[in-house]
Every structure is written in structure tokens, then in C-alpha cells.
Write a structure and sequence with these properties.
By secondary structure, the chain is α+β, with helices and mostly antiparallel strands. About 45% of the residues lie in helices and about 20% in strands.
């Protein structure tokens, strides 16, 4: 049974479904771009921590962490927003890398800053195990 005046109801239903579908699609795209940027930032943190664990040179570790992000990562992060911190915590080398994602706002979705931390055991500990207890 069809009521009089229902001619455009399918179009209205399609418009509502279309809006919801594209909101979901843009959210998925934003999270994907943010996740790929997070992967690059994590890799930079790991490489900086590894370099500092081996050489104990903060400058070289920061430079290596930044150079990892100079390859393809600038498609996903803002180049000037990268900061690399390297420090020693006991027998560990710790690196923390922060960067802003290239796409910070995608319609309804706000992407947070990328912050990743990595740690490695200092190589000195393996070369001189007698100096450490436990």
C-alpha cells in the first residue's frame, strides 16, 4: 500500500545514509594517516634510542632520529614540528619523539599530537657486566 506524497522518501533516506557513510569514511582516512605518521615517529624514536645506547652521543642520536623522518614521513607529519629528546635512565637509553600530524583536522575529527617513546639497554652494560648488580 502506497501513500500519496511518498515520491521523494528514497532520496531523503539515501542522503542520510550518504552523510553517515562519508563521515565514517573521513574518520577512517584520518585515523589511517595518523597511524602511519605514528609508525614513522615510533621508528625514529627507536633509532634514536639505539644510536644513543651504542654511542652515548646525544647529538648523533637526535640527528639520526630526525633523519629517519626525512624520508617519506613528511607526507604524514609537519616537518618543523619534530622534536627528539634523548636521555639516560639508569642502564637504559630513552628517546622520545614528538611531531604534529600533517592532517590535524579532518572535518569532525581532531587528530592529537604524535608522541612515541622507545628505550634500549646501553651497550656499556653488555661490555662491562661486572659493574652492574643483579
Amino acid at each position: 500500500m502506497r501513500f500519496k506524497g511518498e515520491g521523494g522518501s528514497t532520496l531523503i533516506e539515501f542522503a542520510f545514509a550518504f552523510i553517515v557513510f562519508f563521515a565514517f569514511l573521513f574518520g577512517l582516512l584520518g585515523v589511517t594517516l595518523w597511524g602511519i605518521g605514528g609508525f614513522f615517529v615510533q621508528e625514529a624514536a627507536y633509532e634514536a634510542a639505539r644510536e644513543y645506547a651504542v654511542t652515548l652521543d646525544e647529538g648523533a642520536a637526535r640527528e639520526l632520529g630526525g633523519s629517519v623522518l626525512k624520508r617519506w614521513a613528511y607526507l604524514f607529519i609537519v616537518p618543523g614540528s619534530v622534536s627528539v629528546e634523548v636521555r639516560r635512565e639508569g642502564d637504559k637509553a630513552v628517546a622520545e619523539v614528538r611531531a604534529k600530524p600533517r592532517v590535524r583536522r579532518l572535518y569532525l575529527y581532531q587528530m592529537p599530537e604524535l608522541t612515541r617513546r622507545a628505550s634500549c639497554t646501553l651497550e656499556y652494560r653488555f661490555r662491562n657486566p661486572g659493574e652492574f648488580s643483579g
